[in-house]
Amino acid sequence: MDSRPVLLDVDRLRVEFKVKAKEPLVAVRDVSFQIYEGETFGLVGESGSGKTTIGRTIIRIHEATSGEVRYRGQRISGAISRELDRTVTQSIQMIFQDPMASLNERAKIDYIVSEGLYNTGQFANEAERAAKVTDVLEEVGLLPEFASRFPHEFSGGQRQRIGVARALIVHPEFIIADEPISALDVSIRAQVLNLLSRLQKEFGLTYLFIAHDLSVVRFITDRVAVINLGRIVELAETEELFENPLHPYTESLLSAIPLPDPRREKQKVVKFYDPSSHDYSAGEPHLAPRLAPRLAEITPGHFVLGNDAEIAGYHEVAAVRAAERRSRQAAPKNDAPTPNA
To answer: What pTM was estimated for this model as a whole?
Structure first.
């Protein structure tokens, strides 16, 4: 069991959206995970899988249909007091995906960055507020004079830095980064990632990093949850997930990662995921409990979704792979003889 303090606890979260004259659209299906203090937790999956909905529900933009979100052990989903809502606003911030659409084009950067201060009242006078804006702009690599300009005067990378400054100015503990680099040029992505890493070290931040680019996820995260159709199918430490994927959906995602070597890229085999390969009765567990999917711990810290038969199969695969690793480690190394002088 992990001894680190749990900062965020998502417990059986379910989010539905009403569709006119139709059955509700289920965007998130009974999702559970914990984020430890100081870590970067990745949430990956295809577009429309429910990643952003989870992030927006945590920060209370969307309402949870059922389940709970707890921050430092205190429930923050559903109806909460005004004082707790203010605490959530200060402690949890979000960096939005689109740096072009997430900034108010009619407002100057000074006001945009200061919105969190206005909402939480974290300044005594205008001079203190302006000083905080200057400090946070410099912290993210922007000039203080940028405060008097409008968003359309900046590049995509600069606008995303403004979004980071807006989130950072209220001194949050937890930041939800919703695909913060997907709309940026490749040359700018590394700058923003390095900025996020540096800020995490300086301020002790905890991140929920939402993305679909697995190469980026491997670089920046400590643990990863893979989500498909609103349900987590696999969760593990980042290197464990990349080196030892078990769920076929995870294997499919990893097989599609582009390789820098053109010859290896041409020879690689992409695995296609077939959802119909699973025999689930999630809607009727009382009729077929053996077929109802559940998230099971296959190896310490490595969870995979499956029915009883699938989980047994994952245990067997994990045991075989572990035996192969032990065999390779125990095999003597054939060092080439040193030539005589």
So the answer is: 0.89
